[in-house]
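call fold(seq) -> C-alpha coordinates
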Amino acid sequence: MVIDLTLACGEYDLTYALHTGLVQPSGIDLNVLTYESPERHWRMMRHGEFDICEMSLGSYLASRKHPDLYPFTAITVFPHRRFRHSYMFKHSGISSTNPGDLEGKKIGLRTWQTTAGIWMRGIAQEQYGLDLTSVEWYTDDTEDVQLTIPDKFNVQRISEDRNIEEMLVSGDLDGAFYPARLSSVKHKKGAEHIFEDPFLEEQRYYEETNHFPLMHTVVIRDTLLEKYPWIATNIYKAFSEARDICLQKLEDPRWTALAWAQEHLDHQQKVLGTNPWPYGLVPSNQRTLDKLLDYAYDQGLTPKKYSPEDLFAKSTLDPEIEGKEYVSGK
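ret:
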Protein backbone atom coordinates (compact mmCIF):
# COMPACT_ATOMS: atom_id res chain seq x y z
CA MET A 1 0.00 0.00 0.00
CA VAL A 2 1.26 3.45 -0.95
CA ILE A 3 -0.48 6.62 0.23
CA ASP A 4 -0.27 10.04 -1.43
CA LEU A 5 0.70 12.88 0.91
CA THR A 6 1.78 16.52 0.59
CA LEU A 7 4.94 17.80 2.27
CA ALA A 8 5.54 21.56 2.51
CA CYS A 9 9.23 22.02 3.11
CA GLY A 10 12.03 24.48 2.45
CA GLU A 11 14.41 23.57 -0.38
CA TYR A 12 17.78 23.30 1.34
CA ASP A 13 20.75 21.07 0.73
CA LEU A 14 19.57 19.03 3.73
CA THR A 15 16.18 18.37 2.10
CA TYR A 16 17.18 18.47 -1.57
CA ALA A 17 16.97 14.70 -2.00
CA LEU A 18 13.33 14.83 -0.90
CA HIS A 19 12.55 17.54 -3.44
CA THR A 20 14.17 15.67 -6.31
CA GLY A 21 12.59 12.36 -5.36
CA LEU A 22 15.99 10.73 -4.81
CA VAL A 23 14.66 9.86 -1.36
CA GLN A 24 11.10 8.56 -0.98
CA PRO A 25 9.72 7.47 2.39
CA SER A 26 8.64 3.85 2.42
CA GLY A 27 4.91 3.46 1.71
CA ILE A 28 4.42 7.13 0.81
CA ASP A 29 4.29 8.99 -2.49
CA LEU A 30 5.29 12.54 -1.51
CA ASN A 31 4.19 15.63 -3.38
CA VAL A 32 6.79 18.12 -2.13
CA LEU A 33 5.77 21.79 -2.18
CA THR A 34 8.19 24.67 -1.65
CA TYR A 35 7.26 27.94 0.06
CA GLU A 36 9.19 30.55 2.00
CA SER A 37 9.00 30.00 5.76
CA PRO A 38 6.52 32.80 6.62
CA GLU A 39 3.98 31.64 4.03
CA ARG A 40 4.44 27.94 4.77
CA HIS A 41 4.01 28.35 8.51
CA TRP A 42 1.03 30.69 8.16
CA ARG A 43 -0.80 28.38 5.73
CA MET A 44 -0.35 25.38 8.00
CA MET A 45 -1.18 27.19 11.25
CA ARG A 46 -4.16 29.11 9.94
CA HIS A 47 -5.61 26.66 7.40
CA GLY A 48 -3.97 23.25 7.90
CA GLU A 49 -3.27 22.96 4.17
CA PHE A 50 -0.61 20.23 4.19
CA ASP A 51 -0.34 16.65 5.40
CA ILE A 52 3.25 17.14 6.56
CA CYS A 53 4.92 20.50 7.07
CA GLU A 54 8.24 21.95 8.11
CA MET A 55 7.19 24.24 10.94
CA SER A 56 8.52 27.03 13.14
CA LEU A 57 9.28 25.56 16.56
CA GLY A 58 8.13 28.78 18.23
CA SER A 59 4.73 28.68 16.58
CA TYR A 60 4.42 24.95 17.24
CA LEU A 61 5.12 25.46 20.94
CA ALA A 62 2.53 28.24 21.08
CA SER A 63 -0.02 26.00 19.36
CA ARG A 64 0.22 23.19 21.93
CA LYS A 65 -2.09 25.07 24.28
CA HIS A 66 -4.93 24.44 21.80
CA PRO A 67 -4.31 21.03 20.16
CA ASP A 68 -7.92 20.92 18.98
CA LEU A 69 -7.29 24.04 16.86
CA TYR A 70 -3.91 22.80 15.63
CA PRO A 71 -4.37 19.03 15.14
CA PHE A 72 -0.86 17.96 14.22
CA THR A 73 2.12 16.52 16.06
CA ALA A 74 5.85 17.00 15.53
CA ILE A 75 8.53 14.41 14.93
CA THR A 76 12.08 14.82 16.19
CA VAL A 77 13.41 16.17 12.89
CA PHE A 78 15.04 19.60 12.93
CA PRO A 79 15.83 20.61 9.32
CA HIS A 80 16.71 24.21 10.16
CA ARG A 81 19.08 25.46 12.85
CA ARG A 82 20.95 28.73 12.98
CA PHE A 83 23.19 30.71 15.26
CA ARG A 84 21.54 34.07 15.88
CA HIS A 85 24.14 36.55 17.11
CA SER A 86 24.54 37.57 13.43
CA TYR A 87 20.88 38.64 13.38
CA MET A 88 21.06 41.11 16.26
CA PHE A 89 21.21 44.57 14.70
CA LYS A 90 21.46 48.17 15.86
CA HIS A 91 20.98 51.64 14.45
CA SER A 92 24.32 53.00 13.31
CA GLY A 93 24.13 55.87 15.81
CA ILE A 94 23.96 53.49 18.80
CA SER A 95 27.26 52.73 20.54
CA SER A 96 26.27 49.35 22.01
CA THR A 97 28.70 46.42 21.70
CA ASN A 98 26.35 43.70 22.99
CA PRO A 99 22.57 43.35 23.38
CA GLY A 100 22.74 44.11 27.09
CA ASP A 101 23.43 47.73 26.10
CA LEU A 102 19.87 47.97 24.70
CA GLU A 103 18.34 48.09 28.19
CA GLY A 104 15.30 50.38 28.10
CA LYS A 105 15.58 50.83 24.32
CA LYS A 106 13.28 50.11 21.38
CA ILE A 107 13.86 46.80 19.57
CA GLY A 108 12.10 45.48 16.48
CA LEU A 109 10.99 41.88 15.92
CA ARG A 110 9.14 40.01 13.19
CA THR A 111 6.67 38.52 15.68
CA TRP A 112 6.86 37.54 19.34
CA GLN A 113 6.60 33.81 18.52
CA THR A 114 9.21 33.71 15.76
CA THR A 115 11.72 31.07 16.88
CA ALA A 116 14.71 33.25 16.05
CA GLY A 117 13.32 35.99 18.27
CA ILE A 118 12.74 33.60 21.17
CA TRP A 119 16.37 32.51 20.97
CA MET A 120 17.74 36.04 20.60
CA ARG A 121 15.72 37.41 23.52
CA GLY A 122 16.74 34.46 25.67
CA ILE A 123 20.41 34.75 24.76
CA ALA A 124 20.36 38.52 25.26
CA GLN A 125 18.91 38.06 28.74
CA GLU A 126 20.91 35.04 29.88
CA GLN A 127 24.28 35.79 28.29
CA TYR A 128 24.34 39.60 28.30
CA GLY A 129 21.97 40.65 31.10
CA LEU A 130 19.27 42.38 29.04
CA ASP A 131 16.10 42.92 31.09
CA LEU A 132 13.42 41.95 28.58
CA THR A 133 10.75 43.80 30.56
CA SER A 134 12.65 47.10 30.20
CA VAL A 135 12.50 47.04 26.39
CA GLU A 136 9.84 48.49 24.11
CA TRP A 137 9.28 45.70 21.57
CA TYR A 138 7.84 46.37 18.11
CA THR A 139 6.59 43.69 15.69
CA ASP A 140 5.93 44.07 11.97
CA ASP A 141 3.70 41.04 11.31
CA THR A 142 0.70 39.25 12.79
CA GLU A 143 1.18 36.22 15.02
CA ASP A 144 0.48 32.90 13.26
CA VAL A 145 -0.86 31.52 16.55
CA GLN A 146 -2.86 34.02 18.58
CA LEU A 147 -1.04 34.84 21.82
CA THR A 148 -1.79 36.52 25.10
CA ILE A 149 1.61 38.03 25.81
CA PRO A 150 2.19 38.66 29.54
CA ASP A 151 1.65 42.28 30.57
CA LYS A 152 5.20 42.54 31.88
CA PHE A 153 6.39 42.67 28.27
CA ASN A 154 5.74 45.90 26.37
CA VAL A 155 4.93 44.62 22.86
CA GLN A 156 3.18 46.58 20.14
CA ARG A 157 2.55 46.22 16.43
CA ILE A 158 3.95 48.90 14.15
CA SER A 159 1.68 50.64 11.65
CA GLU A 160 1.15 48.87 8.32
CA ASP A 161 2.83 51.65 6.34
CA ARG A 162 6.18 51.01 8.06
CA ASN A 163 8.57 48.08 8.54
CA ILE A 164 11.24 47.15 11.05
CA GLU A 165 14.21 47.80 8.75
CA GLU A 166 13.01 51.25 7.75
CA MET A 167 12.41 52.17 11.40
CA LEU A 168 15.87 50.89 12.38
CA VAL A 169 17.61 52.88 9.66
CA SER A 170 15.69 56.06 10.54
CA GLY A 171 16.58 55.73 14.22
CA ASP A 172 13.00 55.19 15.37
CA LEU A 173 14.25 51.84 16.64
CA ASP A 174 17.52 51.35 18.50
CA GLY A 175 17.88 47.69 17.57
CA ALA A 176 16.28 44.72 15.85
CA PHE A 177 16.33 40.98 16.53
CA TYR A 178 15.26 39.78 13.10
CA PRO A 179 15.21 36.29 11.48
CA ALA A 180 16.55 37.44 8.10
CA ARG A 181 19.54 39.50 6.99
CA LEU A 182 18.77 43.17 6.49
CA SER A 183 20.09 44.76 3.31
CA SER A 184 20.83 47.97 5.22
CA VAL A 185 23.23 46.02 7.45
CA LYS A 186 24.88 44.28 4.51
CA HIS A 187 25.44 47.59 2.73
CA LYS A 188 26.11 49.56 5.95
CA LYS A 189 23.35 52.09 5.31
CA GLY A 190 22.08 53.19 8.69
CA ALA A 191 22.20 49.83 10.46
CA GLU A 192 24.87 47.36 11.53
CA HIS A 193 25.54 44.27 13.59
CA ILE A 194 25.49 44.71 17.36
CA PHE A 195 28.60 42.57 17.70
CA GLU A 196 31.84 43.68 16.08
CA ASP A 197 32.46 40.09 14.96
CA PRO A 198 29.25 38.05 15.27
CA PHE A 199 30.86 35.00 13.66
CA LEU A 200 33.41 34.75 16.45
CA GLU A 201 30.73 35.51 19.04
CA GLU A 202 28.62 32.61 17.77
CA GLN A 203 31.58 30.25 18.02
CA ARG A 204 32.30 31.45 21.53
CA TYR A 205 28.65 30.87 22.42
CA TYR A 206 28.77 27.30 21.08
CA GLU A 207 32.01 26.52 22.90
CA GLU A 208 30.44 27.78 26.13
CA THR A 209 26.95 26.26 25.84
CA ASN A 210 27.09 23.51 23.17
CA HIS A 211 23.83 24.91 21.75
CA PHE A 212 23.33 25.02 17.98
CA PRO A 213 19.88 26.66 18.12
CA LEU A 214 16.93 24.66 16.79
CA MET A 215 14.60 26.67 14.54
CA HIS A 216 12.21 24.29 12.76
CA THR A 217 10.65 20.89 13.23
CA VAL A 218 8.33 18.78 11.06
CA VAL A 219 4.65 18.22 11.91
CA ILE A 220 2.18 15.59 10.67
CA ARG A 221 -1.61 15.68 10.76
CA ASP A 222 -2.98 13.80 13.78
CA THR A 223 -5.64 12.08 11.64
CA LEU A 224 -2.87 10.52 9.56
CA LEU A 225 -0.87 9.44 12.61
CA GLU A 226 -3.98 7.80 14.05
CA LYS A 227 -4.76 5.93 10.82
CA TYR A 228 -1.17 5.15 9.79
CA PRO A 229 1.03 5.30 12.92
CA TRP A 230 4.03 4.08 10.89
CA ILE A 231 4.16 7.41 9.02
CA ALA A 232 6.10 9.16 11.80
CA THR A 233 9.06 6.79 11.66
CA ASN A 234 9.09 6.55 7.86
CA ILE A 235 9.10 10.33 7.43
CA TYR A 236 11.80 10.60 10.07
CA LYS A 237 13.94 8.07 8.20
CA ALA A 238 13.43 9.88 4.89
CA PHE A 239 14.61 13.20 6.35
CA SER A 240 17.59 11.41 7.90
CA GLU A 241 18.53 9.80 4.60
CA ALA A 242 18.26 13.14 2.78
CA ARG A 243 20.50 14.74 5.40
CA ASP A 244 23.09 11.97 5.10
CA ILE A 245 23.22 12.43 1.32
CA CYS A 246 23.75 16.17 1.85
CA LEU A 247 26.60 15.68 4.32
CA GLN A 248 28.27 13.21 1.99
CA LYS A 249 28.03 15.59 -0.98
CA LEU A 250 29.47 18.45 1.06
CA GLU A 251 32.75 16.53 1.17
CA ASP A 252 33.06 17.10 -2.60
CA PRO A 253 34.24 20.71 -3.21
CA ARG A 254 32.79 20.53 -6.72
CA TRP A 255 29.28 20.27 -5.26
CA THR A 256 29.10 23.93 -4.25
CA ALA A 257 29.93 27.25 -5.90
CA LEU A 258 31.74 28.51 -2.80
CA ALA A 259 35.37 29.17 -3.63
CA TRP A 260 36.70 28.03 -0.24
CA ALA A 261 34.04 25.41 0.45
CA GLN A 262 36.46 22.77 1.74
CA GLU A 263 38.16 25.22 4.08
CA HIS A 264 34.79 26.34 5.50
CA LEU A 265 33.70 22.73 5.90
CA ASP A 266 36.94 21.80 7.66
CA HIS A 267 36.46 24.70 10.07
CA GLN A 268 32.82 23.79 10.71
CA GLN A 269 33.73 20.18 11.45
CA LYS A 270 36.48 21.31 13.80
CA VAL A 271 34.01 23.45 15.78
CA LEU A 272 30.73 21.55 15.44
CA GLY A 273 31.78 17.99 14.59
CA THR A 274 31.08 15.92 11.47
CA ASN A 275 27.28 15.95 11.89
CA PRO A 276 25.95 19.12 13.52
CA TRP A 277 22.44 18.23 12.24
CA PRO A 278 21.42 15.24 14.37
CA TYR A 279 17.77 14.21 14.47
CA GLY A 280 16.05 12.31 17.27
CA LEU A 281 16.26 13.12 20.95
CA VAL A 282 20.01 12.60 21.21
CA PRO A 283 21.68 14.32 24.19
CA SER A 284 22.75 17.42 22.23
CA ASN A 285 19.22 17.95 20.87
CA GLN A 286 17.68 17.30 24.27
CA ARG A 287 19.93 19.93 25.87
CA THR A 288 19.22 22.55 23.21
CA LEU A 289 15.49 21.79 23.10
CA ASP A 290 15.36 22.11 26.89
CA LYS A 291 16.89 25.58 26.66
CA LEU A 292 14.34 26.65 24.03
CA LEU A 293 11.52 25.31 26.22
CA ASP A 294 12.86 27.40 29.12
CA TYR A 295 12.88 30.53 26.98
CA ALA A 296 9.41 29.89 25.53
CA TYR A 297 7.90 29.50 29.00
CA ASP A 298 9.75 32.50 30.45
CA GLN A 299 8.57 34.67 27.54
CA GLY A 300 4.92 33.67 27.89
CA LEU A 301 4.56 31.53 24.77
CA THR A 302 3.60 28.39 26.69
CA PRO A 303 1.46 27.94 29.83
CA LYS A 304 4.06 25.60 31.33
CA LYS A 305 7.47 24.25 30.46
CA TYR A 306 6.65 21.40 28.11
CA SER A 307 8.46 18.08 28.06
CA PRO A 308 9.44 16.27 24.84
CA GLU A 309 6.60 13.81 25.51
CA ASP A 310 4.15 16.72 25.24
CA LEU A 311 5.44 17.63 21.79
CA PHE A 312 6.65 14.72 19.67
CA ALA A 313 5.30 11.50 18.22
CA LYS A 314 6.23 8.74 20.64
CA SER A 315 8.03 6.55 18.11
CA THR A 316 10.43 9.38 17.22
CA LEU A 317 11.44 9.74 20.87
CA ASP A 318 12.75 6.16 20.87
CA PRO A 319 16.57 6.27 21.03
CA GLU A 320 16.72 3.26 18.71
CA ILE A 321 14.69 4.92 15.93
CA GLU A 322 17.69 5.03 13.59
CA GLY A 323 17.09 1.35 12.90
CA LYS A 324 17.08 -2.21 14.09
CA GLU A 325 18.88 -5.02 12.29
CA TYR A 326 20.25 -8.46 12.98
CA VAL A 327 23.18 -8.23 15.36
CA SER A 328 24.53 -11.53 14.06
CA GLY A 329 23.97 -13.36 10.81
CA LYS A 330 21.53 -12.45 8.07
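The longest helix spans residues 231-250.
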